[in-house]
């Protein structure tokens, strides 16, 4: 009798002594979880697991898989408060929605039900909420906040202050020498651009404008500075709303969980999770994008990746699509996902300790090209889920929480969309990644672009917000990989796994560093 069978028999006996009955498939699952431990440790674990099951007050003596998983998860979280988790994946459709209350100057949780086919008013409402978010942080910025008077002297006399105008203020006058307006950059007439806010819209003359850093696409919010005359704002400078440190932003949300997940409180300041994060120096997160499972050479490289990580499993391996060519053949994708599960055969430590997260692209089947995108259907990944039980099918985008760190993952060729739709291409192309990162950080949004270029579900637009700023934004863009940090937020692009000679990124949360990795081998000829 092999060791696994002996352990299963021991589990069944131990459970019977405690008054429980356990089916063979559940005893096999528990035996696989306990197998890596020494015999003495296994006995201890069986004792504490049965004690936990007794505390769950099960309605029947039969122990189901769900109760076992709950017991194991709770025992792995010893020392953590209720709702605190070391690692979790957060579905974009469950991200909480907050609205800014101008009266109390705070964000409040919006508990109204949301739908994919929502009310027509939401077409403008989601843009108004995005505008309100950008307006309140802009008004707090040093350039726009009123000067503080001390002993009759303005403390900020040395620095120039701006007064933010609304569109209706400009439309109510004929001339204004200096004006700064925050609004949506839009093209209401062919070849003519306007800045629009909830009070109205003003035509822009951009012929002499100086563009600040970033990609200025129709559909983003801008600060337009210039002189107003005869219904036209002649723009001298066009910039973005100022970025704001996440620590400052969170002060206006209260103690609620703005990030999402099971916890009722924000886990960012949990002292226990901070200690776990500091001591787990070997923990890593692995990111790959453009993982074409229909290419044999990619499957060979993934096998090398799994075998290599079996001795030192990461916390999670995140695979981003497209997983096949855009044939929309559902059955073909199911076959490739089954083959992906077979690649991990023999990598038992990896399958037990690592979450495999699949993030679909716009080309993957069963969902329209609208963000947020639903995950791959479980029916297509049934074989993979059986072979690798810790597989999780994610939305696009999705959120990750590792201890106190907040990570956004999005699979989108956004750089090409920016370059194709920008009014002004940055002259400094050697640092184009900084323009990309600045655009996301200042806009506080994943896709600050016209809905025609990238449509979004109006009711679920808050799932795309980057406010307060997360610790890490992982973009799966097929352009060249890069990393740029601004305002304590790192924007990482993984690049294409196929086009970059099978390169991928490894994030180390304990040190907040990113490592470039590549799978070596002589299979490139394939």
UniProtKB/TrEMBL annotation:
Keywords: DNA replication, DNA-binding, Nucleotidyltransferase, Nucleus, Transferase
UniProt-annotated location(s): Nucleus
GO cellular component entries: epsilon DNA polymerase complex
Keyword Nucleotidyltransferase attributed: yes
Main location class: nucleus
Biological process per Gene Ontology, one example term: DNA-templated DNA replication
Residues covered by the DNA polymerase epsilon subunit B N-terminal domain: 4-75
One term of GO molecular function: DNA binding
Domain DNA polymerase alpha/delta/epsilon subunit B: residue ranges: 285-483
Function field: Participates in DNA repair and in chromosomal DNA replication.
Family of this protein: Belongs to the DNA polymerase epsilon subunit B family.
Name recorded for this polypeptide: DNA polymerase epsilon subunit
The species this protein was found in: Drosophila virilis (Fruit fly)
Gene it is expressed from: Dvir\GJ13306
